[in-house]
């Protein structure tokens, strides 16, 4: 399993801890803090610990479709496999041939889709997006569902800097 693939799988597991589905009731995600519109979670222990910040979309469009739960997450792994890795979590399967885009201010970065998640391909672009998130006030993510529905989400960035700091410290 490649670093990126294992990151996707473990990020999915971490995000699943936040759902109310009975299938994920046995996860050990713990709320470690709340900063503005962002929450900090830890999961696991020792070298396997994952720390992440998470925020739910404030606005979803179009209004006439069921989006499910929509989150944006930035993950840190204690073992160093990921440091401030951003990802988008949709409540539906994404169309893999139409790259989702995350935008903060005038900076827009393409992501790649895997099932109901999207990730930034290049580490340098991950750092760029997280830097822009720290400096911005809102972020939008545009995506296309597997069925072809074009969607757009707005996330508040209020509290993201403090949340990222706490997450990074918890997994250092």
Strand-residue fraction? 35-45%
Q: What structural category characterises the helix and strand content?
A: alpha+beta
Strand order of the biggest β-sheet: 1-2-3-5-6-9-8-7-10-11-4
CATH C-level class: Mainly Beta
Question: Could you give a short account of the major beta sheet?
Answer: 11 strands, antiparallel
Note the overall shape.
globular
Residue share in helices?
10-25%
Low-confidence stretches: 1-26
Average pLDDT over all residues: 87
Number of strands: 11
Which CATH architecture is right? Sandwich
Order of helices and strands: HEEEEEEEEEHEEH
How is the CATH topology named?
Immunoglobulin-like
CA radius of gyration is 15 Å
Number of helices: 3
Q: Give the N-terminus to C-terminus distance in angstroms.
A: 24 Å
CATH superfamily: Invasion associated locus B (IalB) protein
Keywords: Signal
Signal peptide: 1-25
InterPro entries: IalB_sf, Invasion_prot_B
